[in-house]
Amino acid sequence: MTAQTLYQKLWAAHVVADLPGGEALLYIDRHIVHEVSSPQAFVSMRESGRKLRRPETHLGVADHAVPTRSPRADGVRHGTIEDAQAAAQIAELEANVRDFAVPYAELDGPEQGIVHVIGPESGFTLPGTTIVCGDSHTTTHGAFGALAFGIGASEQGTVMAAQALRQKPAKTMRIALEGQRHPLVFAKDIALAIIARIGADGAAGHAVEFTGEVVRAMSMAERMTLCNMMIEAGSRVGLVAPDAVTFAYLEGRRLAPKGENWTKAVAYWQTLASDEGAAYDRELVIDVAEIAPQVSWGTTPDQTLPVDAPLPDPAALPDGPAKRQAEKALAYMGLAAGQTMASVPITHAFIGSCTNGRIEDLRAAAGVAYGRKVAAGVKAIVVPGSAATRAAAEAEGLDKIFREAGFEWRLAGCSMCVAMNDDRLAVGERCASTSNRNFEGRQGPGGRTHLMSPAMAAAAAICGHIADVRSLGA
Amino acid sequence: MTQPLTTLSGHAIAMPEENIDTDIIFPARFLLITAKAGLGRYAFHDRRFDASGAPVEGYVLNRAPFRPEDEAAPFIVAGANFGSGSSREQAVWAIAGLGVRCIIATGFGEIFHANCQRNGILPITLPADVVAGLMEAAEGQQRFALDLDAQSLTVGNQTFTFDIAEERKLSLMNGWDETGLLLHQYADAITAFETRQQAMCPWLYAKED
User: Fold this and answer.
1) Computed from CA positions of residues B197, B201, B202, B206, in that sequence, does the dihedral angle turn out positive or negative?
2) For strand B7-10 and strand B144-147, is the pairing parallel, antiparallel, or unpaired?
3) What would the pLDDT profile of B141-174 be if each residue is shown by its tens digit?
4) Which domain of life is it from (chain A) (predicted)?
5) Which residues form the domain of A39?
6) A182 and A159 inside one domain
7) Is residue A333 located within the same domain as residue A190?
8) Could you tell me the strand order of the sheet in which B102-105 lies?
9) Which of A78, A174, A178, A338 is 20 to 30 A distant from A272 in Cα terms?
10) A48 and B29 in contact by Cβ < 8 A?
11) Are residues B69 and B89 in the same domain?
12) What's the distance, CA A269 to chain centroid?
């Protein structure tokens, strides 16, 4: 038998039927449902009179539209949401999960949070499974060695009814991470550096697998950050082979296998790693020693540079798309060719999101914030990725560190990553952000987003301008 | 069931830009709307309208014959990585709401691409030099003509062919509902798969302890 990659193993284990044209009908094990992308899928179920084939394989939660503040002292949000559209959307999700018997993480319950944070935390996300969600950052779950990808609402309807999807196999790409990184260079910096190198569509059509000593030494949180960001290089699938770190993370989680099933599952999961000598369509080796803290300067995630590098000069570029893009981005961002990012004043700092809203991220940011103060004129918010993350952070006293430094300590949600809740930028405001997209208007119409790691965002909040966290220290 | 797509003719909306992402196509704040119909007014909203809601002069969707109300431009021509970013199907519904049925680009965001096919919109990928020529033709208000069965696109006296999987073509031409089709053809295969998987991975079928 020929050597197989992790992706090929996951694919082969889920083929229900081969279809003409090289496609396959792929079995879907898990589906996460949030309030924003699911309403139309449930409408299609109602209109067609179909039932969910296996309701217990779905998990519902509200995250995108929810406010991250509550007017109530006890932090309860239910019944307090002022935005009528958001409240209606959440109510619609609640009605849908009730009517279709979908397990639901209640808005004010202990398991609420961002889809890509609570899936892993609850043990819903498991190695060797196929996982879909109406959200492009579903790539995140690939950190567990799951075949996980974002889908549209129509496809959600298909998964609900048929538990299967027609899919075309991706090509495979290996990114090996080698070398010794600076202690203040994080998975976010590595992901941004990769995207800057290969382009915003540089991994299109490919399933990206991360290998190498650097990945093996990473926590699950860092592996999730890497996989999460691969959609920003155009890949629907990021992957890390499961190992002892993965198993240690999962053991004992509410939905993880128990007893004999746990033993069987781990034995199976250990077979998933890519075989020695398996061939990839593309390979890339990254020496992480060469990576400095990264900051995006433009309006696509590949418009990213080391914090101390000068911005490109469009005049020096040949006529073509790259030149046009650079001109457009500099104009939108209000930046000049040749300047460096490390001095650009900010109005906001946002620490959170499915990319960087986990406890490890909050620890890194708190390490920088400890004993310091947020600069005057900067609004800095910390939004834990889930209620469980928030509780864990409070148990460690991270909330106190943030509050004393002048950060706002919020309730879990997508918050300022997506500008469809209360947390958003106004025209011309500039944010040091741990989120994943710096698209025009992503954090609010006319808002300007600079992507970076949690430590870098905390440093920017403290300094009042973008700053190299290595010179500030943690 | 979507509207079948067989032939199409008319003007093409030129968007000579790379990485037109889903936030440009459909800004996130409108995602609070839970309807599928009537989203055309939000398509490319922040390019089309200024902060006061007035049309931005000169933007392609505000110029005849490319305005939605002209009902004359069922094609879009764009650069690389069109529809990159989010999985929001509203991006496709909004474009459909403009009356567009075919998008020609040098590349697409993958989830957007899949969403197009499920909503009766044909995404065509062509090489950069061909797209550059089509962009000029679109800006010059030449008429485009699509024949899906023949997999051809004719502009002026030039005809280009494109690739599409046979199944996808049939689905578009017939307006088939993919869910219904799968359930009809593969219900037994899905059940057989579940039986095999349950034997091999029983933890995926265990009730919560």
Assistant:
1) negative
2) antiparallel
3) 999 999 999 999 999 999 999 999 888 899 999 9
4) Bacteria
5) 6-167
6) no
7) no
8) B12-15, B75-78, B102-105, B122-125
9) A178
10) no
11) yes
12) 23
Tokens of A312: 């490109």
Q: Do B190 and A40 touch (CB under 8 A)?
A: no
Q: How many CB atoms lie within 10 A of CB A45?
A: 20
| Closest CB from A29, A234, A261 relative to B84 | A234
Does any CB of chain A come closer than 8 Å to the CB of residue B94? no
Contacts of B85 (CB under 8 A, 6+ apart): A136, A231, A437, A439, B21, B22, B23, B109, B112
Distance (Å, whole) CA B170 – CA A18? 17
Domains: count for chain A: 3
Q: What is the pLDDT of residues A339-357, one digit of tens each?
A: 999 999 999 999 999 999 9
> For residues A133 and A41, what is the distance between their CA atoms, to the nearest angstrom?
12
Per-residue model confidence (pLDDT) at position B208: 61
What is the nearest CA distance from B60 to chain A, expressed in angstroms? 17
Q: Are A172 and A207 in contact (CB under 8 A)?
A: yes
- Looking at B37-132, which runs of residues are DSSP E strands? 75-78, 102-105, 122-125
Provide the CATH number for the domain around residue A281. 3.40.1060.10
For helices A187-198 and A220-229, what crossing angle results, to 10°? 20
pLDDT tens column, A301-336:
999 999 999 999 999 999 888 899 999 999 999 999
Peptide bond into A306 cis (omega under 30): no
CB A242 within 8 A of CB A274: no
In sequence order, what are the beta bridge partners of A15?
A: A26
In order, the DSSP letters of A333-402 are HT--TT-BSTT-B-SEEEE-HHHH-SHHHHHHHHHHHTT--PPTT-EEEE--SBHHHHHHHHHHTHHHHH
Tokens representing residue A288 in the block:
């992480």
Cα–Cα distance measured from residue B118 to residue B2, given in angstroms and rounded to the nearest whole number: 8
Yes or no, beta carbons of A234 and B182 under 8 Å apart: no
Write out the two tokens for A446. 């006319």
Distance of alpha carbon A401 from the chain centroid? 25
H/E stretch holding A323 reads helix A321-333
Domain co-membership, A124 together with A175: no
CB atoms within 10 A of CB A344: 21
Residue pair B91/B83 in contact (Cβ under 8 Å)? The answer is yes
Per-residue model confidence as pLDDT tens digits over B41-65: 999 999 999 999 999 999 999 999 9
State whether A463 and A332 are in the same domain: yes
Residue in A136, A162, A257 nearest the CB of B182 = A162
Domain co-membership, B52 together with B24: yes
Coil vs helix vs strand at B24: helix
The terminus-to-terminus CA distance of chain B in angstroms comes to 41
CA distance A398 to B125: 49
- Which residues of A participate in the annotated binding site? 354, 414, 417
Asked whether residue A123 falls in the same domain as residue A221, the answer is: no
Cβ atoms of residues A317 and A380 within 8 Å: no
Pick from B42, B86, B95, B177 the residue to mutate for testing the A interface (most A CBs within 10 Å): B86
ipTM (interface pTM): 0.95
The token pair that represents A260 in the structure block = 């004999």
* Domain membership of residue B199 as a residue range: 177-209
Q: What is the pLDDT of residue A282?
A: 98
Binding residues of A for [4Fe-4S] cluster, as ranges, are 354, 414, 417
Instruction: Find the angle CA(B21)-CA(B22)-CA(B26) to the nearest 5 degrees.
Output: 130
A330 and A282, same structural domain? no
Q: For residue A121, what are its two tokens? A: 């935390």
Q: Are B113 and B208 in a shared domain? A: no
